[in-house]
Predict the structure.
Amino acid sequence: MPAKAPYARVKEFLKQGLACGHWQPGALMPSDSELVTQFGVSRMTVTRALRELQNEGLVTRVQGLGTYAAHLFRVSSTLTIRDLHEEILSRGHRHHAEVHIARQEDATAAVAAQLGLPKGTAVFHTLIVHFENNLALQCEDRYVNPACAPDYLATDFTQITPTHYLLQVAPLWEAQYSIEAGSPSAREARLLGIPAQEPCLIIVRRTVNRGIPITMARLVHPGSRYRVEGAFKP
Amino acid sequence: MPAKAPYARVKEFLKQGLACGHWQPGALMPSDSELVTQFGVSRMTVTRALRELQNEGLVTRVQGLGTYAAHLFRVSSTLTIRDLHEEILSRGHRHHAEVHIARQEDATAAVAAQLGLPKGTAVFHTLIVHFENNLALQCEDRYVNPACAPDYLATDFTQITPTHYLLQVAPLWEAQYSIEAGSPSAREARLLGIPAQEPCLIIVRRTVNRGIPITMARLVHPGSRYRVEGAFKP
DNA sequence: CAGTGGTCTAGACCACTGA
DNA sequence: CAGTGGTCTAGACCACTGA
């Protein structure tokens, strides 16, 4: 096992001090030059340790003032959103999809606004139900900006998920999403094969690439069959 | 406006190339030394740009081989979990809390297992309902490891939320959580003042500090009044 | 003014990979 | 072996803050 890198030792030292409360939130922490002296390393090394702590939200650095222990009232975590097909396969289960709608439509006012297009513009619309071991897991109602993916409707969605296809067409994404609990629409309940009053986990996601809206999707999951999990670490 | 820093220019250049598909996922990207030559900067500067792209999951670097465009099939995002009190105040609304339970109990087998304690150990239990402008927003059912917060029950929970208090006692957290849709229990429905069949967003969170479990909480929110939002960027 | 963090340079040594 | 990324050093100049 190789010795720990100096920047990692500095980082570890500071992290320990924060964890044991040696520096309370808001407290002034050692300056760069103090750490240089204390650890006998160059300033670049100290800087790297502190920049990583800053990126992790553990410290706040202010030019001219110093480095402060962060107020951890906002804890951020990494939530991984995966392609459903891949997620199901990784559990060792079978995935298949039923395509109920795959056509071009004139955008309603709401859809047009979300995709940044004039009302009435032709957009692609798909409605697909995804199954894990023959149990309905997700009803995916999606609109796509044709300018971003002109061949979208030529895809065989029983083989390739829209998410997978769109990631290939536009590899870099920005997105906003919301996660809420709600009731399925009558059609969604029928397609998912669940009672109309079953609570569902509903994710609404809007995706943008280089400022151009690509797609928006409403993903409805039976509450008893799906949940989002995550972890956060300091 | 100050000129953009050199490391930021290198990073921007690479990000653009990835966004426009110039480097497809898995493709070999320019080496450190090529970028040094191309941009006329020192290697530390190039390294910083690439390390940040690596931390963002956009590239993969392998010693001896090179830098590769990442496969973006997993997109990770930052989900911010905030202290509810702060969250409500930041919307300019009023927050108040009703404390229904605040006592010591003998841990059931399930609670003991989650907190890493023997069954029957004394633990702290609170049940608090949080209101935003007099509308119930969250029913918080929480168990706390007394070893981590011996004075927990002395807190006035109408003034200080358990989250806020525990963040002060143990500032650095690790946690696992799950988010799901479900029905409230009969008691939760009564406390929240909602129909028993209203879909709820349920967050279960277990928190650990330096390997020692601190607390576990079941947070139940009326689906019509609360949702989790987030964004991800490459 | 002295002290702070933000950033950069021009070198260096190392472990690693594949030819 | 030449080329790759991982990391470090010892300096430097700058913008910024508060005394």
Observations:
- Chain B touches chain A through 59 residues (CB under 8 Å).
